[in-house]
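[Q] Does anyone have a clean structure-token version of this?
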Amino acid sequence: MKKTSRSILALARSFSLGLVVSSACSLVAAPGDSHWDRQFGLSGTANRVFALRFQGDQLYASGYAVGTGGLLTTNTSVEIFDGTNWSSALGEVSGGVCVVYDVGFLGNDIYVAGVFARAGEVTARGLAKWDGSDWSSIGFAGVALALVSDGTNLYVGGSFTNAGGVLNTNIARFDGTNWHALGSGLGYYSGFITPSVNVLELHNGQLYAGGTFTNAGNIAATNVAVNAIAVFGNNVYLGGTFTNAGGVTANRIAVWDGFSWSSLGTGSANGLNGTVFAIEVNGSDVYVGGSFMNAGTTVVRGIAKWDGANWSGLGSGATGTGTGEIRALSFGNDGKLYCCGRFTNISGINASSIARWDGTTWETLGSGFFADSAIVRGTELVIRGDDVFAVGTFSAAGLADSSGIARWNETIDFTPPFTMNFSRARLLPGNQFKSRLNCTERTTYVIESSDDLQTWTPLLTNSAMQLDFTNAVSPSVNRRVLRARGIP
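[A] Here you go.
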């Protein structure tokens, strides 16, 4: 035992590393990868972010955390980005399947919606309030999926029948103190699908709700299912999986002008032949993203434009290992249309799940998104100034390791000084030496060992930006020196 202890100490005292960094290092980078923020990703466990919301200059990200065994039952509810750093000032929600779907704001209070049983130490089922220092329940019990505020009221959509003792059906209003019903709510009377309100939109004092339901109060309002709502002027555009709007045949997309429903296109040119996930309006042009092949009779592959009279594609559209799909659309300050989804190619250009349209051609955002094993998909975009924030199922954006969330800014070069360093050096039972190599770039390197600083033995070659490795150490060895050097 004493001999083993001396060996560990000798190894720790004499452990050193030689580091060789040269221009021969082969970096695997695409043009533009330097514009992905390498310090932006959330730390800790992998994350699946559902919603991005701005309040002032702060960005709130909500979703759930994933551990090695799957979904965690304790989840940091909302991460807050202040422009430089992330924080978890709101603490945790927990209990059962623990997911945060949305975050909303009313006055100085922050509301967290989802599926959970507790917020901090407070029992709060599905919806909780944070006042800046403490959690509290506001009498809600159910599943909250969507939040929107007009500054005076918080509107809540989800799957529930009661809030604060007031009967509600999947939608309700909270004025900061009391709950109020919105008529008889939104529901349906069938045993096949659980009714829910999934999306809310406020415009000019009007509240628009979409989801899975067939009745608005006692009025038939077939809404199976609405995934996206976009408002422009007096027009409200809805997209989803439906084929009828107010008795009008409308394939997966329709528009309400304040008086009546209309389809986008008629006859064989009516709508899309697959699900709509996103709608973005720019003047008279309506851009639509989803998992469809055709808009009317035009082959568009996941993304299309309606100009008020005709459908057209944006190039030849999105493709991938399966059917390409577009999940989110947003216009940037540069006037370009950004999109993300599941695709590997868009109009003949290799683009991994995120790209932008300049009105004529498609452009890549560096090398896009990557994941080690999961399906790579971008699910939401939020643009503020020159920053493009994206979330989805990916573990890297460009050269930036990420946990399902990424930031792109074309006006900033985020390339850090190139460094390589060892950390977590220790001797394990069985004379196994373990350490970690950290690199700030994806570079090909070799790790070598030496016991006399004269002869170096290659241990392994790799290109991971973070690599844990082990090396067997003979009991007779008093010193083991490691070095890492870049190779062509």
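[Q] Thanks! Anything notable?
[A] The longest strand covers residues 206-216.
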